[in-house]
Structure formats: structure tokens, C-alpha cells
Amino acid sequence: MVTKPHSLVCLLSSLITLFLALSCSSPPEENLSLKSSGGPAMSLTKEIFGYLPEGQAIEIYTLANSQGMKAKIMTYGATLVALEVPDKNGVSEDITLGHDHLEGYLKASPYFGATVGRYANRIAQAQFQLNGQTYHLAANDGPNHLHGGLKGFDKVIWQATPVKEKDWVGVHFSYFSPDGEEGYPGNLKVTVTYQLTSDNQLKILYEAETDKPTPINLTHHSYFNLHGQGKGNILDHLLMINADYFTPVDKQLIPTGEIKLVKGTPWDFTSPHPIGQRIQEVPGGYDHNYVLNKEEGELSLAARVFEPQSGRIMEIYTTEPGLQFYSGNFLDGSITGKAGRVYPKHSGFCLEPQHFPNSPNQPNFPSTILQPGEKYKSQTIFKFSVQK
Ligand code: GLA
Known about the structure:
This protein has helices at 5-22, 102-107, and strands at residues 43-51, 57-64, 70-74, 79-86, 92-94, 114-116, 122-123, 127-130, 133-136, 145-146, 159-164, 168-177, 188-197, 201-210, 214-215, 219-221, 238-241, 245-247, 260-261, 273-274, 287-291, 300-307, 312-318, 322-326, 350-354, 369-370, 376-386. By secondary structure, the protein is mainly beta. It has one domain: Beta-galactosidase, Chain A, domain 5 (Distorted Sandwich). The strands form 7 sheets. A 9-stranded antiparallel β-sheet has the order 11-12-13-14-27-23-22-17-20, with no helix packed on it. Strands 1-2-3-4-5 form a 5-stranded antiparallel β-sheet, with no helix packed on it. A 5-stranded antiparallel β-sheet has the order 19-18-21-24-25, with no helix packed on it. The N and C termini lie far apart (50 Å). The site of alpha-D-galactopyranose has 11 residues, from strand 24 and strand 25.
């Protein structure tokens, strides 16, 4: 039998790929596949996701493990673009809302999957006082400052370095935020490292250093739907939040300063409840910060979400003191996202580990001020499993 030239080419290219995959010393940038000695197969690849109007290329990294989990993260906003997670039958599905192309993120994204900073959530009247000086920030939510301002960390380009270890693959992102950016004091060096582990955890580690005192509050802003993105709403998901208290808000979603018991209110998720069960009793839907039950700085369970049909379970662990629960109230069907799916109200939920909103103006909330010489460190883990 004659071997067709086409199959010869295929054979040759497979051999080359295998050789490159095995030679760990300098894997090619575009395909960083590896099989670490003895460890489970993990892969890491890099592509160009698109170009900004000014011409800069935006890269996207795909992390995959052998359990059917895959995470795609781009350098624009250090944004999680897709997260594929297996269901109880081993079928993987993308469970985060977002866009298939970069243009979608530039056109219409309510922080889908983004890294949010310098200060996630709201700062009242877009100002705060620090060491006797008043700082004015960009007002981008009525009179208030939201999620870092007009061009927050979700809209900047991060420098990426792929990382491969025995039990995880990841990407280390760094960004330099100059003194005065969006009104904040101090040059801030910030890094965010995403890691996908062999046992279905997506870990995010944040670090930062400043040369002047500045508020800082970094978070991750994925919209999850454990049915699969674009497949109905999240009102049937069973949610547990490990918090006996929350911070009530005024009409502009600014905390009143009160720290209130959840017991006897529709905010009580200390035992699992369907998200939709009492949502009608909450004006506008859930968009509140919970005060997590924990020792200061401890990495502990913040929330657990279970979607019975798929059997998917997501647990969140964090070192942060708070968790913003947002039930996708502002989604209104005007955004068409991945795979042409439309995103109506409550088609995704966010659970954002963070410090409390408006902390720079609330002396009774844990401090968010980073001092020169100190190192900001924060960790969040999204851990996936199934229940049959
Ligand atoms: C956060 C806020 C919400 C909303 C979304 C983005 O979760 O708490 O009020 O601004 O981000 O739309």
C-alpha cells in the first residue's frame, strides 16, 4: 500500500509535536503542551484572541486538565473568557457568561469574567479622604465610583507569563498602575496568577505593592450558570453562603454602615436555599455584600452552589472578609454572548470575594488601605465537583 503524502506530513508533524511536548527545556510559545513526569496530563496553549482598535494584540491562554476542565484567560482585563466544567455524567460545558470574540468584550461587557480593581465595588460620591487629603475618583455609576472607574483593571492589557508545575498549569499576569490612574494615589505593581489544578480547582492569587498609601480591593467577576452558559436562569441553583451578617445598602447600593444579622431575612443563606425562593422580597434582586464567618485573613469556605440537574457543585474559598452576591439583576437580554446565546435577567450570578464596598469611607469596616512596604495578598479558589 502506498502512503499518501498527506498522511506522511501528518505523521511527521505528530512526531515533531511529541518531541516538543517531551522536551521541557524550551517549549514553543504557541503550544505549551506538557505531560509532567508521573503527574496527570495538563496542557497550556497560547493564541491571539484579537486586536484592540489601537492595534495591540490580545493573547488568550487555554489551560486544561485531564478531568475535562478547561479555562481560557485573556490578557485584556486578565479576564476569564471560558470555564468548562464536567457535569455528573462527565459532560463538560462552559459555565461562564461572556463573548466568543474580543469585539464583544469591547462593545458590551458588564465585567464578564474580569479582574476588577483598583477598587472593586462602590466608593460613595467617588471620593475618599486619606491622611488629611481628599482624593477624587472617576464617577462611573451615577455620582459614585464603581469597579475601578472608567478604565479599571478590567480594561487594561496585562503582561502574561505561562507557568507549569507538577499539579497545575497557569498564567501569571502583571500590570503597573501609575500614580493618579483613575484618581488613585501611588504607583501600584499588581499581579494576578490563575492556576488550574489537576483536581478541578481554579485558584486565583492576587499580590500588589504601592509607593504611597492607597485603597485596594481586587476581585474576580465571573457570571456563573451551572446549567451551562446561556441555558436558562440561575434561580433554581441552591446557594449556601457562610455568613451570619451582611451589609445593608441604600438606593444607590452603597452600604449604610450597618452590619446586620441575616437570620429571619431573605438574605439568610446559612443553609442552602434556591436563589429564586425569596428573591421577590429583595428590592431589585440580590446585590449585597456578606460578612463571611471567619478569622481575619484565613482561607476558608465562603459559599457553595449546587445545581441539581447537572449535579455541578461550585465551592468558593477565600482569604477575603466579604463576598458580594449579585443575582444578575441588570442583565436584560440586550447582550448576545457566547454561541449566540442571549443573556436575560438572572441568567448568571456573581459571587465576588472582596473587602466591603465603600470601606475607604466606613471606619467600622476592615481597612482596605495598602501602605508602602506592605504586600497585598489575597487568594480565592473556585472548586468544582459533582453530586449524582
Ligand atoms: C457588581 C455590582 C453590581 C453591578 C455589577 C456589574 O456585582 O455589585 O451592582 O454593578 O457588578 O453590572
